[in-house]
Amino acid sequence: MIEAGVDEVGRGPLAGPIISAAVILDSSLQINGLDDSKKLSEKKRLELDIKIKKSAVAWNIASATIEEIDSLNILQASLLSMKRAVEGLQIRPDKVVCDGIHKPNILIECEAIVKGDSCIKSIMAASIIAKVARDKLMKDFDAVYPAYGFKKHKGYPTKFHLDALELLGPCKIHRLSFKPVKRSIKAEL
After folding, report:
1. Which of 30, 66, 123, 180 is the most exposed place for a label (fewest CB within 10 A)?
2. How far apart are CA 121 and CA 82, in angstroms?
3. How many beta carbons lie within 10 A of that of residue 138, not counting itself?
4. CA distance 127 to 70
5. pLDDT at residue 184, rounded to an integer
6. Quick one: pLDDT at residue 189?
7. Of 132, 170, 167, which Cα lies nearest the Cα of 48?
8. Which residue, 156, 188, 187, is CA-closest to 174?
């Protein structure tokens, strides 16, 4: 049975898209150090990202846009992103396992596993490559919008980010449906 793990990164930030990854691991190969991406250092994630992409049977990264997040809501956008990640795999899996309690709407058997990113290797691998991709994207956005500090906080609501939002208002990559961003818009008026 071919099983793919899928996970998303970026539900909590106030800016940027949701990024998801789907990974089918080669069961004959061991990748040492896999864990939930949040538990790994940036250096370790970058090392594992390369190993996962080299040794996986298949992998894919997909996203849901800021506009989709604002129009659908964050949960539905994250499920859409996960669906795109699975459907973009070069090999169709027989089963998909995903982190959490919600499953993407796909035509493949799917199981949601609470804390799956801490116990299922393919979900760990997906969480790592999704996090590396999103972090790189937010660093790229930092070059365009340097006043917000995206390379440091990746869009999460840190004090620095909230202060910048209050002072400057939102930029084009902010999620307008999120309360702190809405408040900053009202403050501008």
Report:
1. 30
2. 17
3. 25
4. 23
5. 86
6. 52
7. 132
8. 156
